[in-house]
């Protein structure tokens, strides 16, 4: 009995320790998850219009970063960057730990996302310089598909997909990029991490003198390309190239930065813009057979593609995963808004997404209200500024005398809004008696609330009292 008791006791002890260890591991994971939730809570007491606070100067352009440690960015789980690429400028290939949507504010160019496992379908030929009998065509270069872009385009890039961008026009290309760092595709942390395949990115100056802090190690040393961290002999063997070529791949003595100038222009195989548009239309059959065939670009600024249009107020265009299926993978969408002078976007809230609003032209007054009825933002938003509107916070925009245009990147592939005013609004769908008792108003006033804007939806034309009031104020 005694001899069999002790082995049994030992087994029970081991099982107990094992279960205890599993419980401790589970508790540790729960604590970690709770900490992450606490860090991601939105304790927003006030919002502010934001401008980039750091910039990186390169040979052929400028990279500007918004402070992702700002509580507004932390709340939304996003990061934002603005690139300015000079003519013949090439934004060198890189990838990041978070999916991104890029909006082309101005300019034209080409871009090339490189999807692992996809075929090299763009082929360039050249005449072989041989004898007459052997003369013919041979491959000069093969690469994955290239896409043209122009002002108003949205470019979508999944996390971990390397891509580059080239300005083939005569004016600077300006691109605003929003990364969703809280995406499930990012399994690192909530910090945006860029991985350069070539070149480097080094912080040159601080735009705001009020923004003072100790630079992090990453910022002080810069972002070199990932090959610079490998042994040159290993690179030489991996690529089967000489050592001097391996050293050049590391860009250690290259001072051009992350945007370089292509002196004679970039010569790559690509179809004409008109042919690319025709091919795009022919593929719009609602079916996306493979990841390699998916579209990564869609124009959102074309007035003919507006979803809401008012001849007196302006227009709204949305881009979601129904229109651009790749957005389903990114879990992001976009909205393009144009307001004419003094017009409004109906007060509303974003039901299932945070909204990152960047003003592309003009200016206007924006008001944002939190769940306690407290005004968290009431001020002017002008060209070049960015404002993050948290999910469920009520917001209204009214254009100034020069109108207001913006792009909004949202953290849901099918972002939805709920208006408070207009034909499809929350109040419009309520019985008069509910409105009367809610606000202690007469039936006549309740009907005004429901039907005064009955012919308008999200875009509201300026009211007579507003126009007269502004006219007297300007006089």
Low-confidence stretches: 13-17, 23-39, 128-134, 203-221, 285-289, 468-475
How many helices?
10
Tertiary shape: elongated
Distance between the termini: 105 Å
Short description:
The chain is α+β, with helices and mostly antiparallel strands and 475 residues long.
Please explain how this structure is put together.
There is one protein chain. A hairpin with a 5-residue loop joins strand 23 (355-369) and strand 24. Strands 19, 20, 21, 22, 23, 24, 25, 26, 27 and 28 form a 10-stranded antiparallel sheet that branches. The protein has an 8-stranded antiparallel sheet with strand order 15-1-2-3-12-5-10-18. The model is unreliable at 13-17, 23-39, 128-134, 203-221, 285-289 and 468-475 (pLDDT under 50). By secondary structure, the chain is of the alpha+beta class. Helix 4 crosses helix 5 (243-249) and helix 8 (432-439) packs across helix 9. It has helices at 2-40, 71-76, 217-221, 232-239, 243-249, 273-283, 326-330, 432-439, 443-451, 464-474; strands spanning 54-58, 61-65, 78-85, 89-96, 100-106, 109-114, 122-127, 137-143, 147-149, 153-157, 162-167, 173-180, 194-196, 200-201, 205-206, 223-224, 259-261, 297-299, 308-310, 314-319, 333-339, 344-350, 355-369, 375-382, 386-389, 394-410, 417-419, 459-460. The chain is elongated.
